[in-house]
Amino acid sequence: MCTLSAILIVTPWAQGRKLYFGSLSEPTSEGPDLLPIHCCYSTVSLAAPNPCAANGGQGPCSHLCLLHHNRSAACACPHLMKLSSDKKTCYDIQSIRGLAVDWVSRNLYWISSEFDETQINVARLDGSLKTSIIHGIDKPQCLAAHPIRGKLYWTDGNTINMANMDGSNIKILFQNQKEPVDAMIIFCIKP
Fold first, then answer.
1. Which of 106, 136, 111, 107 has its CA nearest to residue 121?
2. Could you read off the pLDDT of 97-142 as tens digits, one per residue?
3. Which of 36, 93, 118, 143 could bridge 98 with an S-S bond, Cβ 3.0-4.6 Å?
4. Who contacts 96 (Cβ-Cβ below 8 Å, separation ≥6)?
């Protein structure tokens, strides 16, 4: 059952896109070319099962439960998450842990995890030309850049590591440090 609250009348597209808003009690005199679209709301709810009702509105899904036209459910994930092979559980596709800026070459470096691999990435400051330059990092905590010397520094578990800014020449500077380990570079400029 539907109770009409208003009527929207639209002329055909070829006639110039006129809109008319009014209640059902108001007659129209625009001519026979008008197409009425009735706006209404339901006063009686349909009794149908909702597969998303359980689990606080998530149904069988870890995050988003969406209804299909046939009243079945489909699971979906928020931005930066992906649906696993069980079609119900979402997992992070990328987690960012560190950020460093090379103001000399105008590049941005960051540590990210995607699936089961953690790497150091680089891109232009506008986000273009993204590439991964260092792979196989285990427990990264932070990242620092020294653009004047062309070096990157990062912590991985209880080690402090260094590499060239293109990802080459990776070295462990210090190991067996007490956790947590952070890296920071302070620049002193002589007048």
1. 111
2. 788 999 999 999 999 887 678 889 999 999 899 899 999 888 887 8
3. 143
4. 110, 111, 112
Tell me which long-range contacts 26-32 makes (C-beta under 8 A, separation of at least 24): none
Q: What is the spatial distance between Cα 117 and Cα 8, in angstroms, rounded to a whole number?
A: 55
Under the banding of pLDDT at 50, 70 and 90, the label for residue 185 is low
Strand order in the sheet with 151-156: 140-146, 151-156, 159-164, 171-174
Find out whether 170 and 163 touch, Cβ atoms under 8 Å.
yes
Q: In terms of DSSP H, where are the helices of 41-150?
A: 54-57
The alpha-carbon radius of gyration of the chain (Å, integer) is 29
Question: Would you say how long the chain is, in residues?
Answer: 191
- Reported as a pLDDT band with limits 50, 70 and 90, residue 93 is low
The residues that bridge with 9 in the sheet, in sequence order, are: 20, 36
Three-class secondary structure of residue 57 per DSSP = helix
Q: Which of 122, 146, 147 is nearest to 133 (CA)?
A: 122
Question: Could you tell me the pTM of the whole model?
Answer: 0.50
Extract the tokens encoding 112. 């990210």
Task: Output phi, psi for 110, to 5 deg.
Answer: -155, 155
